[in-house]
Design goal:
The structure holds 2 protein chains of 2 kinds.
Chain A (H helix, E strand, L loop, with lengths): L3 E9 L10 E10 L4 E5 L6 H9 L6 E6 L2 E2 L5 H4 L1 E4 L11 H11 L4 H14 L15 H13 L6 E5 L7 H18 L3 E5 L2 H7 L2 E6 L2 E6 L1 H6 L4 H6 L6 E14 L2 E20 L4 E4 L5 E2 L1 E7 L3 E8 L2 E8 L9 E4 L5 E4 L2 E2 L5
Chain B lengths: L8 H27 L1 E3 L5 E3 L3 H8 L1 H31 L6 H14 L2 H11 L6 H8 L10 H29 L3 H9 L4 H29 L3 H6 L11 H11 L3 H28 L12
Antiparallel strand pairs in B: 1-2
Helix pairs in contact in B: 1-12, 2-12, 3-7, 3-9, 4-7, 7-9, 9-12, 11-12
Classes of the chains: A alpha+beta, B mainly alpha.
């Protein structure tokens, strides 16, 4: 196991990239801790799979280096990197039994027979596949097959990292949750560095200690789920994480006031004057609707009752504002919105402006 | 669930039914008709019962040509299937050579059977054929018209040349459908080339191999045109396969009864062997998936 260092990493699928737009992955400099659980989260085409393939060695980056511990592995083949990967679709060896599948990577590495038997027996137990150990792998369900693909990586105790490429895509919804919990358990038990690619925020937020949010080939934020929720570094993160996403309202900011359309609101912190391209970000969870005199009048466009809470979609002088109302709370007839001031984030050119800056 | 039954739907099946009736069912019934009757022409028929079938099954001639067929198909399959897989594995996966290879492979398949026979007939002649002449020149005594072994070798090589492409194309399509993730996973698992073939490629080719196997078996078991053109069934009767024998009997000797009986037996054998092959091949190695298992 090892720390993973991304040193000036960038990749383009074109032979001679010129502009920034030619890069599928823009320059990255990060260090990922040994034993961490990371999720690469982002929409399709954001470069997360490119990054994963660079880490696994299926792709050699156009620029920069990747280090496992202190070893530069940029040019090494996947089999030389000592990593494991779980793919979108379960990859199993059809003609082998579950046990033979798990033995396979060890047999190929000429691990002694008694050691193989011991490790595979352990792994079958860890994966809860005892009763199916000697069945042909092809007859199993998708989630069991996916466990086998994972197990083939885990039996090699010394893997540097285990990579997951949207591993729950083909799993039935009710099994997804179980398998994710299992993954989390295994991470705690075995302490491998795990890197998990997904476009599903729930998967990313429940699985990872640190979520790496990517957008158009760039890492826009690395943080814990709380950080991503409370202080999105980029309006994309605010919008992408959360359901519904953060409200982003264009405004002018100066000192402790922000002007949204014809209204002025007081901010909890002081900011320098931001005249252009400034935005106020507020999570729908921190927006309240009232019929009182305070607040900004809005037109309600729709109300979605989704059981435990209601989502009110409204318009504030042409800008969309969503609010989350607790179950049973009535939607006022002539509503006004107000924001929880301590939860407001200010953005300039889509990037978070630090408080006091 | 409530279904609406509409008997008018049968009308839609009618054209196909008429077509199949004219092209298959009625001709087969005619054959059945001949096989149980005797005729001396003039449209006079006498009931013969199972006599012709007994005759055919008791004749040495029938068993000889049947064993020739079985031997031929066996040799053909033993050569063409492994060779086809091998060539498919060697073909490039992408790049400008893919269409070139595919066209080269498809070429023999586009040539009519009798032309294939003629090509090889001329190719193998010692006086004007390139192959025959070359072999003659280097001192090999090769003559497919007088030597039984040479005749067989020529027919087998000809069939391999003609039909291996079919196996290649099927296998190539099968290989192309294996997702990259399998190869990537195998690399990560440290699998050797042989393991990749044995545990990924071969199992994934099973479906197309069953088809290739059945097609090649049926075709080779029914072989007629090529040996007919090349050797005419000779030397002696050494390359008289069942189909050639059948034609000799039906058209050469005009023994319609025995010929009809023989063709029915012939057809039964093909159906039977294909059924057995298919059942065996699709069951070996196939674990029944659990209910609800996603495949």
């Amino acid at each position: 196991m090892a720390k993973i260092t991304l040193d000036g990493l960038a990749h383009s699928y074109y032979p001679n990239p010129k502009t920034d737009a030619d890069f599928a992955l823009k320059e990255l400099n990060y260090e990922w801790d040994d034993g961490g659980a990371y999720a690469l989260l982002g929409p399709s085409g954001c470069g997360k799979t490119t990054l994963l393939n660079i880490i696994s060695g299926l792709l050699v980056p156009s620029k920069g280096n990747i280090l496992f511990g202190s070893e530069n592995v940029t040019e090494l083949q996947p089999e030389q990197r000592n990593i494991a990967q779980v793919f979108q679709f379960p990859v199993i060896y059809d003609t082998m039994t579950v046990r033979q599948n798990l033995e396979f990577p060890l047999v190929n590495r000429q691990v002694p027979k008694n050691e193989i038997d011991k490790r595979v027996a352990d792994m079958i137990q860890v994966l809860d596949l005892e009763d199916k150990a000697d069945r042909k792998a092809r007859g199993l369900t998708a989630d069991e097959k996916q466990k086998i693909s994972l197990g083939r990586g885990l039996v090699r105790y010394d893997v540097n990292a285990i990579l997951f490429d949207e591993p729950l895509t083909v799993i039935d919804p009710h099994m997804k949750w179980q398998l994710r919990t299992k993954l989390k358990d295994l991470h705690r038990q075995l302490g491998h560095t795990m890197i998990y690619v997904t476009h599903d925020q729930t998967e990313a937020l429940t699985f990872a200690d640190k979520v790496v949010v990517m957008y158009e080939g760039e890492v826009v934020q690395i943080g814990t789920p709380e950080e991503l929720f409370d202080e999105p570094a980029h309006t994309f993160v605010g919008y992408f994480i959360g359901s519904p996403g953060m409200n982003i309202l264009s405004s002018q900011v100066k000192g402790k006031t922000a002007r949204i359309g014809s209204h002025e609101i007081n901010l909890a912190h002081e900011y320098r004057a931001l005249e252009e391209n400034a935005e106020v970000g507020i999570r729908p969870e921190f927006v309240t609707l009232s019929s009182g005199k305070t607040g900004m009048p809005v037109q309600v466009k729709s109300v979605e009752d989704i059981g435990r809470f209601k989502i009110v979609r409204a318009s504030l002088e042409g800008q969309d504002v969503n609010a989350v109302l607790p179950e049973g709370a009535p939607v006022p007839a002539d509503p006004k919105v107000s924001f929880d001031m301590s939860r407001i984030n200010i953005y300039e050119n889509s990037h978070l402006v630090r408080r006091g800056a | 669930m409530d279904k609406t039954y509409n008997n008018k739907a049968w009308l839609l099946v009618l054209p196909v039914f008429v077509l199949v009736a004219l092209s298959a069912i009625i001709p087969i019934m005619t054959v059945v008709n001949y096989s149980v009757q005797d005729t001396f022409g003039n449209n006079e028929f006498f009931w013969a019962g199972t006599e012709w079938f007994q005759d055919v099954l008791n004749s040495e001639r029938f068993w000889n040509s049947l064993s020739r067929n079985l031997l031929f198909s066996f040799i053909i399959l033993c050569i063409e299937i492994p060779l086809g897989i091998g060539i498919a594995l060697c073909m490039p996966k992408k790049g400008p050579w893919v269409p070139v290879c595919l066209v080269l492979m498809a070429l023999p398949l586009l040539i009519p059977w009798n032309v294939v026979g003629t090509i090889w007939q001329i190719f193998g002649r010692a006086d004007i054929g390139l192959l025959g002449h070359t072999l003659d020149a280097i001192g090999v005594d090769y003559n497919y018209t007088s030597n039984i072994f040479d005749a067989w070798v020529t027919i087998i090589v000809m069939d391999v040349w003609h039909w291996t492409s079919l196996v290649v194309l099927l296998c190539y399509a099968g290989l192309a459908s294996i997702p990259d993730a399998y190869y990537q996973a195998a690399r990560i698992d440290g699998a050797s080339k042989w393991s990749v073939f044995r545990f990924i490629q071969l199992p994934k080719l099973r479906g197309v191999l069953i088809i290739a196997f059945l097609l090649r078996f049926m075709d080779s078991f029914m072989i007629y045109t090529e040996p007919f053109v090349l050797t005419g069934g000779g030397p002696g009767n050494s390359t008289t396969f069942m189909s050639i024998d059948l034609v000799k009997q039906a058209i050469g000797q005009f023994d319609l009864g025995p010929a009809a009986a023989m063709s029915l037996i012939y057809q039964l054998i093909i159906i039977l062997i294909c059924y057995v092959f298919f059942t065996v091949m699709s069951h070996t190695g196939a674990d029944k998936p659990e209910q609800g298992a996603a495949e």
